[in-house]
Amino acid sequence: MAASDSGEELSMPPDFCCFSLLPDGGRLLQTYSTWGDEVRTKSRTAGRDSVIILFRAREVRREVKMDGCNNNHVNTPAHRKVTAVIIGAGNRGKNYAGYAEQFPDLMQVVAVAEPREYARSLIQKRHSLPQERCYPGWESLETVEKLADCAIIATQDQHHVQPAVAFAKKGYHILLEKPMAVTEEDCRSIYKACRDAGVILAVCHVLRYHPPAKKLKDLINSGIIGEVVNINHTEPVGFWHFRSFFCSR
Predict the structure, then answer these.
(1) How far apart are CA 52 and CA 88, in angstroms?
(2) Is residue 198 within a helix (H) or strand (E), and if so which, with residue range?
(3) Alpha carbon distance 125, 234 (integer Å)
(4) Which end of the chain, N or C, is less surrounded by CB atoms within 10 Å?
(5) Can you give the residue ranges of the Gfo/Idh/MocA-like oxidoreductase N-terminal domain (predicted)?
(6) Dihedral sign (CA 241, 243, 244, 246)
(7) What does the pLDDT read at residue 240?
(8) Confidence (pTM)
(9) What is the number of structural domains in the chain?
(10) Does residue 87 sit in the same domain as residue 193?
(11) Which residues form the domain of 179?
């Protein structure tokens, strides 16, 4: 048996062990085991995001440093500031636009398209947009001359395909909120439009770039923990978050 961060006992065969990964302090929490021994993982931070990995033990493991685990922003010099239009100013569109607030030397929001006036006004205020750069929908923004390097599309899932195709055809690189679309046909249409236009298409599976997740992938690829046979990712958040995270995984 092994204890999780919440104190729950995890049932496992005697020749397996596990460790927990937490994004606090940049370290792999201490794990110890040999073949057939009981395993316990100790957490200093209850209630935080954690990942419990079950793997076939090879040798005794102690605490492993995780350099760079807490680097939320990789300080790589940019060739120039990237400009973006926000299509859909809900929770995700607002959050992605927030990168320009945190790193104004790297990104600038130059326009927003959002049917809800209060959400559109919030982006306008935060990014000092003139009224003529605030559009009631993506269709009206699509009719004007290209304004930016990329379009950040964060509309409702079923409304991804039309703006993604339209703005790719105008030469915008596309940053598309997950899921890419709700049908295979729509996904293929988006892919084809971006390929034909020669623009970048990126889907916002953000955990692929999250430092703890990247470090976890590096550890698995390195083989240091042995053969991974199961991963149980626990994120103690509200029920409304699970639908989004189902799409993320």
Answers:
(1) 35
(2) none
(3) 36
(4) C
(5) 84-204
(6) positive
(7) 63
(8) 0.65
(9) 2
(10) yes
(11) 82-206
